[in-house]
Amino acid sequence: QVQLVESGGGLVQAGDSLRLSCAASGRTFSSYALGWFRQAPGKEREFVAAINWNSGVTNYADSVKGRFTISRDNAKNTVYLQMNSLKPEDTAVYYCAANPSTWGTPTKRGLYHNWGQGTQVTVSS
Questions:
Q1: Pairing of strands 18-26, 33-39
Q2: Rg (CA), the chain
Q3: What is the full per-residue pLDDT of the chain (125 aa) written as tens digits?
């Protein structure tokens, strides 16, 4: 069982940057992935980015490529999402999720079974 706690959300203006953090605790496995998803009102929860904890391999949604960077801090068991050049359409609740047994970087929400409570990101125009 992996417990996840997100932080770092807030209200920013278009073009600004934010860094989200996701702290993982509890039992972890030698191979697992951490993913970021987001959900706007009336929309499905969509994939944003993922990183494999062991390999460091990353995966990004097309909508955030070149603007967002996912990274990990092994010592702190924390994954980050650096969000640059934020746009109003990035406004959503951002969730951290874990797949505790994979060597890949899944993009489907159904493949993640441990979720944080989410952190709100609001980008004004």
A1: unpaired
A2: 13
A3: 789 999 999 999 999 999 999 999 886 666 689 999 999 999 999 999 999 988 899 999 999 999 999 999 988 989 999 999 999 999 999 999 998 878 899 999 999 989 999 999 999 99
Helix (H) or strand (E) holding 122: strand 119-124
In this structure, the chain runs to a length of: 125
Task: Specify the 3-state DSSP secondary structure of 103.
Answer: coil
Strand ranges (E), 27-118 = 33-39, 46-52, 58-60, 68-73, 78-83, 92-99, 114-115
Strands 10-13 and 119-124 come out as parallel
> What pLDDT score was predicted for residue 26?
82
Q: Give dist(CA 23, CA 2) in Å, integer.
A: 10
Neighbouring C-beta atoms of residue 88, cutoff 10 Å: 11
Question: Which tokens sit at 101?
Answer: 């047994």
Residues with Cβ within 8 Å of 72's Cβ and at least 6 positions away in sequence, in order, are: 34, 51, 53, 56, 78, 79, 80
Residue 7: which H helix or E strand, with range?
strand 2-7
